[in-house]
Amino acid sequence: MNLEPEPFTTARLDALPLRVAYADEMAAVLGDPALHTYTGGAPETADELRARYGRQTVGSPDPGVRWWNWVLRVRDEGRLAGYVQATVDVPGAEAEIAWVVGTRWQGRGYAKEAAEGLVTHLLAGAGAGAGTAVARTVLAHIHPDHDASAAVAGAAGLAPTERWCDGERRWERGAGKG
């Protein structure tokens, strides 16, 4: 069971729960190979995204883990511009987050705004019901050369730690920090 994430908003963005129907538009948003510089891989076609989104929306086979994914719609444009995601370890009250904003929308502060909104959403209990925080700790893993992602993480209140995973530094924030 993958309790669906609740939508949330920021000043300029609507974060909408992922749907397979977004695959065509997102294939165009995510089509720049430069988006894979630090993560590896290559842009996916609309058909590949449809298949992946189908798997993601079904959710994790582990009942203690939530796969929560949102697309980001720029409200003034009415267009999708990227996504945020959180893998939530429910028993551990920990959420690992990530964000991607399409090349065309970069440099406008959307990634920072989206990450800040996501962290607030997860730590404030939005979507958990009864005001209970979804996570006590929010973390991200960032390539050491990816200065833009480090800036986004810092803006969202995450701080670098001495922990590393697969060549990426762990950044984190607890509910009482930031």
Short description:
Helices cover 25% and strands 31% of the residues. It has 4 helices and 8 strands.
Write up what this structure looks like.
By secondary structure, this protein is an alpha+beta fold. Helix content is 25%, strand content 31%. It has 4 helices and 8 strands, in the order E-E-H-H-E-E-E-H-E-H-E-E. It has an 8-stranded mixed beta sheet, sandwiched between helices. Helix 1 packs across helix 2 (46-58) and helix 3 packs across helix 4. It starts with 7 loop residues before the first strand and ends with a strand.
| Count of strand segments | 8
- List the total number of helices: 4
Shape by Cα distribution = globular
Output mean pLDDT: 92
Radius of gyration: 15 Å
Task: Note the beta-strand portion.
Answer: 25-35%
Give the neighbour order of strands across the main sheet: 1-2-3-4-5-6-8-7
User: Span from first to last CA?
Assistant: 32 Å
Which structural category do the helix and sheet elements fall into?
Answer: alpha+beta
Low-confidence parts: none
The largest pleated sheet is described as: 8 strands, mixed
Oligomer: single chain
Helix and strand sequence: EEHHEEEHEHEE
The helix content is: 10-25%
Summarize the topology.
Elements: E1 8-9, E2 13-17, H1 23-29, H2 46-58, E3 65-74, E4 79-89, E5 94-101, H3 110-124, E6 137-142, H4 147-155, E7 159-165, E8 168-174
Parallel strand pairs: 5-6
Antiparallel strand pairs: 1-2, 2-3, 3-4, 4-5, 6-8, 7-8
Helix pairs in contact: 1-2, 3-4
